[in-house]
Here is the input.
Amino acid sequence: MAAKAPDRRRNNPPSHGTNPPVFLSTSLPSSTIKPEQASRPPNEIRKIFLRTGLVSSVTGSSFLEIAPLKLSVSVLGPRPLPRTSTTPFAAQAILTTEVKFAPFASTVRRGYLRDSSERDLGSRLYQSLVGAIRRELYPKSRIEVVVTILDSEDEGDEVNTVYMEEGKAAFEPTFRDAGRAERALGVVLAGCITAASAALADAGIEMYDLVSGGVSTVLVDQFDGKGKGKEGDSEKRLYVRDPAIAPPEGKKPLATCVLGYMAARDEISELWILGKLGTKNGTAEMEELVDEAIAAARSSRGVLNEAAKERVQFIVDKAQSTTQTDDTEMTG
Amino acid sequence: MPPPTPLSPPELSYLFTSLSLTPPIRPDLRSASQFRPLIAECSFLPHCNGSSRICMTEAGECIVGIKAEVEKDATSKYATIIEREKWIEVSVEVAGGGASGPGSGVGVGGISGAGGASGRDEGDGGAAVWLKEGLLACGGDGWSILDRLVISKGWHWKLYIDVLLLTPTSHPSPLLLSTAVNMALDSTYLPKLTSPHDVDDIPAFSDDWAISVPLYEPTTFPRPPISLPVVAIGDNVFLDPSVAEVATAEVGLVVTLALSDADGSCDIVGVRGMEVGRAGGKEGDRKGINRKLLRKMVTTCVNEASEVIKTLGETTHKQMFRA
Here is the structure.
């Protein structure tokens, strides 16, 4: 008879055991770790920390940190489709993506069930990865990408507050920032895309190209908002790559672009633009914003390459060491 | 998950070839930027502030009802953006409790009830998210629909936009849903406030519908947004793709536009990737959009759509109960 059915009543440990995590103590005193510089040039993205192979019980995993954003990605599979699946046969691997904020990842507590914005992020992530994976090489199997966001830059703080003046009927917002929540999600999505690519590479899943995420925002001066100088102010537009959630002083965000970019193929696998872009000069405004986001994605690609290399290096090292031992055995 | 199609691989391959020709041959012999005919009605639900019904030949039929409720602000002095964004609630429901037939589940990031990106637990995600997103993004330049919902100090309208898709097995085209929402919003009227603006007592309204206030002033801009699906196969760009075309397409976008002046020029208020089938092509073909194609796709939308949006607006205004 085949192996005994797994005991589903108890929480079993993984059959192959796990390794305890090893934490490196920070050798720097806390005073030397500076908070993020406020004067980061607009064309520079924040520093990214990206490592693979953090979770030992899954096929591939990665951990990403960009200033306050912290997320971990696990890739499960490729593994056979469950027999109870609604699609018992698939010519190409079925990819599923799941994005979940930890309940403590933002000021407003998030429940354990995924809400609509998390589901939406999941489908955006799916869209950005699905074209890059060589799914035809894994028939009758599924690949799961699970993203857990541990910490994020928050949406709700006092800058986000619209002040209602006493005795005034309508809103007199001193500051309107409509796309704020979406911009926060955009930064998270870009992080998810980059980290998920690294995790897929760590899992050894074949891909056409790695996908890296990029975000850019276009800002205008806050006070030229209504009508006047609407046409001629294109030179006053400020394009920021990897924007902070709070826009700089006196600037008002117009639109944000998030994309998944395959640098080696020069293709955009996922595009998400939000905000108002004029079409007086055709699509020039949009293109400029997209180009900035591509530049941001190119920058993060460098980090992604290094992270993906870890795995390759590991395999190469292992292969070399085994061939060496083989050689010695043969000679001996 | 790519949309399930009733088409076989040879059929898809045939479609792919005919759609990548110059000039392309679409299965229904439309030109590349031609829309399918649609039937549009509005202001026909007596219990709603605004309503519409859109019927598209293949893409199905849907009804939108907009109801407004008076609601007290959650916080009296401060209202955060997050709190304000809850003033509009969009829900998309598929009549008959979801579709599982062939051709369903195609949508922008998954359509509610019809099997979304992950094929499960798509309660209110998918379509409702991007419909609301376009609505809020529309007219960020010192104007927001949320300002129109303020009644008086401490009070606002809560807008419920309920979309009911009547044909569960059809392809829920983003165009169908957004056209319906656009038209319903355009025909939405709210009762006129009779109590003073600056008092935080319970507001009082006139019961005379003849003096009710339109949510979107018919002559002002921006107008409600509309989302256009556009797909590309080879170098050809197709507007308003059919189910078969989406299944064959290599890449797809949904471009959300809002009319910004009387000349018919549009602002882009959102662009999203669309799930397409990627079937029929060869392995190692295009996996994403390059910049040249992106420009072509968006330009096509902008150039061809303004007339459609304008006409739709005129139709709405002709049909409105106060016209």
Remarks:
- Residues 9 and 264 of chain A are 48 Å apart (CA to CA).
- Residues 33-37, 156-175, 224-233 of chain A have pLDDT under 50 and may be disordered.
